[in-house]
Amino acid sequence: MKFSRTTILAIFMIGTFAIGMTEYAVTGLLTQFAADLDVAVSTTGLLLSVYAISVAICGPVLRILTVKFSPKPLLIALMAIFIISNIIAATAPNFEILLLSRLLSAMMHAPFFGLCMSMAVDISPPHKRTSAIAAVQGGLTIAIMLGVPFGSYIGGMLDWRLVFWFIALMGLINLIGLLIVTPNIKQKEIPKLKNEMAILKNKNVWMLIAVIVFGFSGVFTAYTFTEPMLREIAGFDVTSITIGLFLFGLGAVIGNFVSGSIQPEMLTERLIVAMAILGTVLLSFTFLLANPFFTYVACFLFGAGTFGTTPILNAKIILAATEAPALSGTIAASVFNLANSIGATLGSLLLTNHFSFREITFVAGGMIFFGVILMFVTHKIEDKSLFRASENAYD
Question: Which branch of life, at top level (predicted)?
Fold first, then answer.
């Protein structure tokens, strides 16, 4: 039986939702981890940093080792690893085992996202390729909007282990969906690692990686401290902070799907505009926190700007890396996590060195505008023909 493109993308979204919840839900559970596993709260931060670094490093390595495998069985194997890792997390007797479970989850993160995005592009006509990538990314943004607050609530009111059992259940549902729905697309030719690694010589891809690492990483320099900024500058209580974080997630979902409607040939121009707006929001963020209404507006715009740029950058890397169809999506997912890690580390370093929250958001906004400058350079030197793809659709 042949399933529709919409059904296939929906199954991919369930998987990326579960992975997104695994990645981000721990931010609201650090206190519970510390109390239950008898470690310092500062130590539990390793659950975030180790995850991001593992995605950035282990993801591409695993994809390189599995480059000759067909997409469907590889997706199924990766989701099986995901389920096992979350069962390990749910039953972890100590912090070290919990950290190991994070390492396992992180290893499959980038290859899974990469495969889903690459397959989404393969089954879509040219004018819907950006929206297909946004759909895959949409699972992650919905996890930020709904999954993370839900996980924090369950962890706080009941038991943090239930969060990982819930994520494992979502993984199982996705595994069944992948088995039934995912098309078993036969590769026209077995990918050759030597050919795929030619991506390292692609100036278009390297410019985009530079934009993400040196520009987009500014997002997490500020995002890491959103909760304390809302608490200390806006004077928000727990309920108001929850609303603010929900609005960030709502903005993320809307920004993601609006960007998904952009045609490939317009990606660069729209990305420059989106990043300029995001940089402006970050520069004005602490000033907006003086008023409750504008605080909520700032949270929404922060989320919309952050995840309005993500699918555009993903799409540009995947479309530009014509020599590496199997590896491009994984590279994109890994680079974003590298940027997340760099941004969070820089933000923590600035705060440790007594920078104010306003100064931190100025640094973050400045980094975004540096990314805008890099995009102008990219626009001048990139091969425009890469974003005018020939017809190829899955019916």
Answer: Bacteria
* Nearest Cα residue to 327 out of 130, 65, 103: 65
User: Computed from CA positions of residues 311, 329, 50, 214, in that sequence, does the dihedral angle turn out positive or negative?
Assistant: negative
Under 8 Å between Cβ of 106 and 55? yes
Note whether 248 and 226 are within 8 A (CB): yes
Note down pLDDT in tens along the chain; length 395 residues.
678 888 999 999 999 999 999 988 887 777 788 888 888 876 787 787 788 888 888 888 888 888 778 889 999 999 999 999 999 999 999 999 999 999 999 999 989 988 898 888 888 887 888 888 888 888 888 888 888 778 877 887 888 999 999 999 999 999 999 999 988 776 666 666 666 676 777 788 888 889 998 888 898 888 877 878 888 898 888 788 888 888 998 999 999 888 888 887 788 888 899 899 999 999 999 999 999 999 999 999 999 999 888 888 888 888 887 767 667 778 888 888 888 888 878 888 888 888 898 999 999 999 999 999 998 888 887 766 666 654 444 44
Contacts 24+ apart (CB under 8 A), 223-229: 223/302, 223/306, 223/343, 224/343, 224/344, 224/347, 224/348, 225/347, 225/351, 225/357, 225/360, 226/299, 226/302, 228/357, 229/285, 229/286, 229/289, 229/357, 229/361
Decide: helix, strand or coil at residue 87. Answer: helix
Q: Could you tell me which residues come within 8 angstroms of residue 320 by beta carbon, excluding any fewer than 6 positions away? A: 202, 204, 205, 208, 328, 382, 383, 386, 387
- pTM, two decimals, is 0.80
Sequence-separated (6 or more) residues with CB below 8 Å from residue 32: 155, 156, 160
Q: Residue 103 corresponds to which tokens in the numbers above?
A: 């390492």
Q: Please, how many CA atoms are within 13 Å of residue 277, restricted to the half-sphere of its CB?
A: 18
Residue (of 80, 63, 82, 61) closest to 71 by Cα position: 63
Best CA proximity match to 25, nearest among 178, 142, 113: 142
Instruction: Give the other-Cβ count within 10 Å of 312's Cβ.
Output: 26
Q: Identify whether the C-beta of residue 46 lies closer than 8 Å to the C-beta of residue 96.
A: no
Altogether, the residues listed in the chain come to a count of 395
Sign of CA dihedral 133, 69, 53, 363: negative
